[in-house]
Amino acid sequence: MHRSPMMRTAVGILLACALLSTAACSSPAADDHPAVTVVQALLELRRADVRDPAAYAPHLLESSVATALAEGSSDPTGTPRVPEWEPPYVSAETSTTADVVVVWRPGVDFPGWSPVTLFFVVLDEGRWAVADALETTTAPAPLGDVSAGQPAQE
Description:
The protein is of the alpha+beta class. The chain has one domain: Nuclear Transport Factor 2, Chain: A. It is built from 4 helices and 6 strands, in the order ααααββββββ. It has a 4-stranded antiparallel beta sheet with strand order 1-2-3-4. A hairpin with a 2-residue loop joins strand 3 and strand 4.
């Protein structure tokens, strides 16, 4: 079957569009970002009240923070050490940083707990690690969401 050059061009364009849309669908979502994975792992350790600094170290930029998290506090809080949370998400990123938002679910066991924590995660020597965190009452919008930050649900 003989196809005209115009038909071959049209088929080529359709094939290229199909490949591009497949690649776009298979790219990782913001909640699959390695920075989100690091924050999620850190939250799970805190929730389980892990007391081994070595368990925290791979997730944190500063080893002194790992030690502080592993030491308990003098306040009797029991296990879990953190309230339930919504799935973390990325609100901003560069090639070497990501802001990961955690919205905490309100609970009577954690009075006064800030409704939102913004984790600042950096790419350091090939690994993503939490560098800092900020408590806030406003949850920034997920990356790519055009709406402004919304107040956390209380």
